[in-house]
Amino acid sequence: MTIKKFARRAAFALFALTLSPAIGWADDHENPYTGDPVAIEEGQKLWAKAGCYSCHGETAEGAVGPDLTDDEWTYRPTDATIFKAIAVGRPGTNMVAWGNQLDPDEIWKIIAYLRSIYKGDPDKIIW
Ligand code: HEC
Asked: How many domains, in total, are found in the chain?
């Protein structure tokens, strides 16, 4: 690891520690943008810009990374859990942390986009 990379990671860890209560990693935190058409459109652009499609597929249908439109999730898919997956990644997998490239607002917009293209069982919606 280069010093620069280490410094960036250390800075992000500190950021995550100090800001986590403020940006709502508590399990009951809800996405302020769910169903908001403007935010959903921005989320779709951010999805493309960040390159999430390179692993999850153009419209999140799944490729190297899992399908994010169905009702099969690794953990209970609360807003807080999905936020955390994107912000801090899933250590030990190809899903890296995006919290140093996307601000919390951008992450919530991407989640609003993902919720808008959900194709799973409507009865399983918990957000
Ligand atoms: C290098 C490939 C890669 C890229 C790029 C990537 N992901 Fe992932 N993602 C994965 C993998 C692999 C997993 C499964 C991790 C696991 O086993 O928990 C995952 C898991 C997830 C999950 C959790 C799914 C679940 O079932 O719990 C979400 C949400 C997610 N990614 C969103 C994103 C978003 C948003 C982006 C872009 C900012 C992104 N990913 C970019 C590979 C990637």
From this structure: 1
Residue with CA at minimum distance from ligand 1 atom 34: 52
Q: Which pLDDT tens digit goes with each residue over 14-68?
A: 666 555 555 545 456 899 999 999 999 999 999 999 999 999 999 999 999 999 9
99: domain CATH number is 1.10.760.10
Structural domain for 83, as ranges: 3-124
- Does the pTM surpass 0.90? The reply is no
Residue nearest to atom 39 of ligand 1 (CA): 52
Residue bearing the CA closest to ligand 1, atom 3: 55
The set of protein residues with a Cβ atom below 6 angstroms from ligand 1 is: 50-52, 54-56, 64-66, 68, 73-75, 82, 85-86, 90, 93-95, 98, 110
Structural tokens at position 29: 């935190």
Measured CA to CA, the distance from residue 7 to residue 53 in angstroms comes to 28
How many other CB atoms are found less than 10 A from the CB of residue 7?
Answer: 11
